[in-house]
Every structure is written in structure tokens, then in C-alpha cells.
Design brief:
Number of domains: 1
Strand content: 25-35%
Shape: globular
Strand order of the largest sheet: 2-3-1-4
CATH architecture: 2-Layer Sandwich
Number of helices: 2
Length: 110
Amino acid sequence: MRTLLFTIAYEGTDYVGWQRQPASAGVSVQGLIEEAHAQFAGPASVAGASRTDAGVHAYGQVASVTSQAPQPVDVLRRAMNATLPHDVRVLEVREMPRGFHARYHATRKT
């Protein structure tokens, strides 16, 4: 297992917010990230540093991702962006130390 940090931007107009919801509630950004990752690298645990509400946009949302993906981080970022809708982009993927968690290790939010 490896721990990754994803920096994500999205236009939230068509989404129920960041946090995964039951399918009947609509599409969440977290759900899209998890589904895109699963398509080419298997399941992953995704935890955002914070949440956004329905319709809210974000530039620089940070999420920790626990993954078994063997791909280098640049390949992972490109594959994610090829799979995600045009209004959700992974801007950066970085390796992080084991135990890193975006929510608990956040030092500030804007």
C-alpha cells in the first residue's frame, strides 16, 4: 500500500458536493475520484481535507489516497484525468509518508 496526496480542482455545479453519497442522492466528487482510480488501478480509499456542499467549486482540494496502484505518480495523474469528466481535474499527485491523512494533517484551509 502507498499513500498519495491528490490536489484536485472541480466545478461543482453538477455535483452533490465532495463527500460520497448514496447513489440515489446524486454524483459526488469523491465518488468520481474513487471510480476513476478503480478503473485502472483498483480500489482506493479517498479522504478529503474538507468537504464542499452541492454546487460549490474548488481549486486545490487536497485528498489523501490509500492505493495499491503501481504506476508512477505522473502516469497516475494523467490516467485519472483521462477518466474523469472535464469539470474535475487532478492537478498533482505526490507520494506521502505512510500514515498521512489530508484531514488530520491539514495546517490551514482557505
